[in-house]
Amino acid sequence: MATKSVNITPTLLLLEKLSTINQDQQGNTPIPSKAMMMFIGAMNGLRRNAEGIEKKLDDTLVEAEKGKDKEEIAVVLLGLGYFHYTKTNYPKSLEYYNKSLSLWKQIHGDTNIRLADLLKDIAVLYDAVSNTTESKKVIAQYEQLFKINGKEIPK
């Protein structure tokens, strides 16, 4: 397992940018599904460093997959990736982050600027496992998103 210390964006901040589940046309927050309620519980447990979080997140993924909602599955995959990041298991974190990215691209399209922070975090994780080749490829995708969207690349 990797032991290098890295910093990535907290899951909830990423989800704030990636999520399409905001409000209905009347301004009401939608009622969360069972999978999302399980996810919220697991992430609260992670914050408190509670035991059994990985199992709770795995169970949440099973529940989300039953519902076949790509966004819910992407959310849980991101949570699992973040969990493994907190345990410095960067290879496993990368696995989940890349699976999540694949679903977010299906949801938003490959060129949506909402993907930027997730790409940046994936590049950081590739650096953490000393895979500079993949990190550079992901940074190139990150920079391309800003160019395509007519935005300045953050410094």
From TrEMBL:
Protein name per the record: Tetratricopeptide repeat protein
Superkingdom of source: Eukaryota
InterPro entries in the record: TPR-like_helical_dom_sf (IPR011990)
Pfam families reported for this sequence: TPR_12 (PF13424)
Upper lineage: Eukaryota, Amoebozoa, Evosea, Eumycetozoa, Dictyostelia
SUPFAM superfamilies linked to this entry: TPR-like
